[in-house]
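Q: Could you write out the predicted structure for this multi-component system? I'm mainly interested in how the pieces pack against one another.
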Amino acid sequence: MPFTPTTRARLTQPERVEAMRNRLLDATIESLAATGYSGFSTNDVVRRAGVSRGALAHHFPVKADLIAAAGQRLIALRAAEFRQRFDGIPPARRTVAKALNVLWSFFDDPSFHALMELTIAARSDPELRTVMAAESKQVADTTLEVFGEAFPELAEQPFIAETLQAILALYTGLALQQAVDADADGRHAAVRRMLKGLLTMAAAGAAE
Amino acid sequence: MPFTPTTRARLTQPERVEAMRNRLLDATIESLAATGYSGFSTNDVVRRAGVSRGALAHHFPVKADLIAAAGQRLIALRAAEFRQRFDGIPPARRTVAKALNVLWSFFDDPSFHALMELTIAARSDPELRTVMAAESKQVADTTLEVFGEAFPELAEQPFIAETLQAILALYTGLALQQAVDADADGRHAAVRRMLKGLLTMAAAGAAE
DNA sequence: GGCTACATACCGGCAGGCTTGCCTGCCGGT
DNA sequence: ACCGGCAGGCAAGCCTGCCGGTATGTAGCC
């Protein structure tokens, strides 16, 4: 019988493995966002995932493996989500302001907090560091690439790469402060408005 | 010879207390910068300070007290150091580019790493959060104030506060990435150059 | 195609190591 | 002499990594 996978209640082995791994990894990301890297424990992961300690030990024998894998998954998830949300903008309404809104939505997000926890932790953890070091460059490249597809005429402008890099850094800094001081949102909103105005003007000037 | 009590080998009691507290706090900051918040332990602090566990317990009964106090000291130290370095620039050579160099020197510094560890940790720690939340605003105010003293004519320009806030956030983001990816310095240097050029042009335009 | 043997995924408990906070005792200053 | 500052040991709690045991999927054989 050529198994139709939809009718089968139980999944095949590789499917189960994949599901379990993602479940553990998602629980890890969730735990990082919630308790922070310092409060992070494998016990919390198995609790959130609803599995036993043995299951975790089977797939990720040591804690560092779990964290590194979670970091890679987090990066991949954010990259995929980025393309998706960006493509969600109707081509007719692709303005610089809209693009900035989409970009900012990634910094006002639980997954950003998890990313920050891992980034900071990576400074003191060589293994994790190699994972997260690649991330910063990859984010810059992905952003430039997606932006180039959406705004072909602007992609040729000089200093585009530097400008995008600057925006990413700026948003990172703003989001970081906002994580500890929610009241700063007012001042930060003014900064984001100024940036938006500046860039729309620059884009209009470049388009002549 | 002025009446400095240097001849006295032993210090008076309040002086000893103050010295011990600062010694413990500095060891805490040093430990945070070195091992990160997650790897931080009171044992490491007493080891670095070269004192016993009892001494630490006497001045800071619980760990959270120590961390909060270290955060406050770190902020105060950086603020004082900021004014000092800024005043160190000869008034005749006070250009925007120089000011940016001084500002950046605070983000390329071990104390910045300690500050980031505390900032991230503060997200999951209400007590520390109140300390660090005030920090972000204080940094913005101090920067604006010192900048205003050095460049009185620019301080009246519109969007100065927002611009400074943006620069602080931008530098934070750059320094953060650089902490995990030293190779990014090349790309980041280009961003900083671009920013420097932009701001000197803007300053020249404002001065007419 | 059905049954058996093996491999793999998963469970729950245990020991070792580390950290924190407390407690008693000693020393120097006042 | 008294008191505050400091030293060092101790117990409780938690976390990590490992282990034997069990259930389930997969492959080989009739």
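A: Regarding packing and overall arrangement: DSSP finds ten helices and no strands in chain B.
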